[in-house]
Amino acid sequence: MASAAALGLTSARDLWEELNDSPVWQDRIFYTLAGLFGLVGLVALIQLIRIECRVPEYGWTTQKVFHFLNFIVNAVRSLVFVFRRNVQKLRPEVIQHILLDLPGLAFFTTYALLVLFWAEIYYQARGQSTDGLRPGFFVINAGIYALQIILWLLLWWMPVHGLLVLSKIFVAGVSLFAALGFLVYGGRLYLMLRRFPVESRGRRKKLGEVGYVTTICFSCFLIRCVMLCFNAFDKAADLDVLNHPVLNFLYYLLVEILPSALVLFILRKLPPKRDLGQYHPIR
């Protein structure tokens, strides 16, 4: 039994190494990722167009911006993986990190919009002011992008391994921050909806939406945080090299492709036509 298990483990390891070291399989996996990202981006674009056709007079609402950013993130990821080998050859090396990491920050901004939207609903339902939420959202995002740009400039000026580790840990921290945001505001909104005394199909559906999206987004950002920590300190978990295509596939499938596809499916309902005064565009 022990020898059979050891043989199976050895075979699995050999297969893993064969896939990782094969340029053919590297290209297949990267093109598969490009196709999946492109498909998710196309779904987000189609949904954006449907929403715009339904409520063209309301400008850039939170829902429209969310789908637009989803399209941009997935389209850029798709292009990066189509030209993954060319990206690996770019110099200075910091350009590679920008192309691989910037869509991840944009992914954070995209889903932070949901946290902002839920926080506004929660505080409005409790009769509390929401005046500071949107400015806070923009300040937090501006601070995150500014710090990341500073790290990239330092990495360009002084390309040492310690700065690269610091940059990866920073993105991991941003992911943990996003996970906690979903846990706090998604959890609060979910509990508030559960306390509503009126039972209705709409309430149950909204309760399910908030619960599912909170669970999906909290999990994906937490997994991203853990994986980026391993990525920073363990060469075997490096996501920024060509010879780890299987790890790339599993990572991006779990932290971006599946979560985005599931959230787009759960939030697929079009907004109802309503009075102009009831709908608030992003300002």
From TrEMBL:
Domain (THH1/TOM1/TOM3) ranges: 12-283
Keywords noted in UniProt: Membrane, Transmembrane, Transmembrane helix
Membrane topology term: Multi-pass membrane protein
Location in the cell: Vacuole membrane
One annotated Gene Ontology cellular component of this protein: vacuolar membrane
InterPro entries: THH1/TOM1/TOM3, THH1/TOM1/TOM3_dom
Regions that span the bilayer: 28-53, 65-84, 104-123, 135-157, 169-191, 212-233, 249-267
Tree of life domain: Eukaryota
Keyword Transmembrane helix part of the UniProt annotation: yes
UniProt keyword Transmembrane helix present: yes
Family listed: Belongs to the plant tobamovirus multiplication TOM1 protein family.
Protein known as: THH1/TOM1/TOM3 domain-containing protein
Organism: Spirodela intermedia
Lineage of source species: Eukaryota, Viridiplantae, Streptophyta, Embryophyta, Tracheophyta
